[in-house]
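Reading a protein record of the kind used here takes only a little practice. The record below shows the convention in full:
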Amino acid sequence: MITINDAISKIKASISPSFKTTIKTIEKANGYVLANNIISPINMPPFRQSAMDGYALNLHDSLTYKLIDEVKAGDPHQPILKPGEAVRIFTGAAVPDTANAIMMQEKVKTNGKQITVQHNITQNLNIRPLGEQVKKGDIALKKETKLNPAAIGYLTSLGITEVSVIKKPDIAIITTGNELVEPGTPLKHGQIYESNSKMLQTALYGLKFYNVTLHKVEDNYEKTLQLLNSVIKTNDLAIITGGISVGDYDFVGKALKELKVNEIFYKVKQKPGKPLFFGKKNNTSIFALPGNPAAALSCFYIYVYMALQKMMNRTEIELPRKQAISSCNFTKKGDRPQFLKAIYSEGKVEILEGQNSSMLQTFALSNALVFIPEDTQEVKINDTVETILLPV
């Protein structure tokens, strides 16, 4: 059995970033990391553009101008303005080549075909220059940029329809246990509804990892061996729940050993989640989590989350931690460090009731985990505690 810090260090040392690439259409690229620099195929804006509704002017010495035309956004025509002439123009419209300033409409008085501006204006006022945002041939976004909705919108505005990105891992979730049945099936005595797969799949989707397959296996050694062999060959990450303890019908550990999976560690001095396994075979990482749902999810956030970030070559690979003021008392049982489900808000944290590793109701209310180290037995109101913020 190893310590939490040793387990974290071993995961960091064992997982290397993946640099496999794939092509994604722009609308499906959110959350991915660019594999290459994106070179702008056009100037943006692709023409001199009006920054507001108003009047485009060919400047002269007077404040009075003759109104000769109108240009709306999307109009292709180019009115020719002589000095002292103006056109009505709207935000986003192409500024005529012969116009050299725009006065906003609030500062213009109109009288039929004549307008008067309220004061002298400078060259290029309120005109977005050609290529102001990015010029054709320049780098629009650098490689290793993580794409977000703004980046998707920006690249779309350049006419880009697909991008080369770092491929996200293929992930298999394997649940074990004869007692598990799918929701929608009437429960027989001794059965429970299987929830870990959907829980972990949802957690992965929330982190924008979508290449996830679900698998279920009975408590049967040959079937466990066959399934694990298949998923390890075809996935970058395998997450197993249940079957990793030492009961008569816990076959995961035995199967992993027969498959020659390199055991990095097994069992961590912590609560919940002591029977946690991490290993590797070739380029596939394998986590075997406890079967109890709350323990499985705690281990996912502390360890699997970090492994996923490392695979994606991200710099911030652990969930954020804050020092928070406890709003309640808590007494720890035993000598193992604990991760406690909690609610964090504005520098304060409440440790919740119902910390049993099989209970998800409390976890459903939580947005944080409070970490209680080995040498701390009691938390009192107004004590400062280390708080791990969960993804929202």
Remarks:
- The chain has four domains: 4-19+168-311, 21-43+136-166, 49-128, 321-389.
- The chain is about 20% helix and 30% strand.
- The first helix runs from residue 4 to 14.
- The radius of gyration is 30 Å.
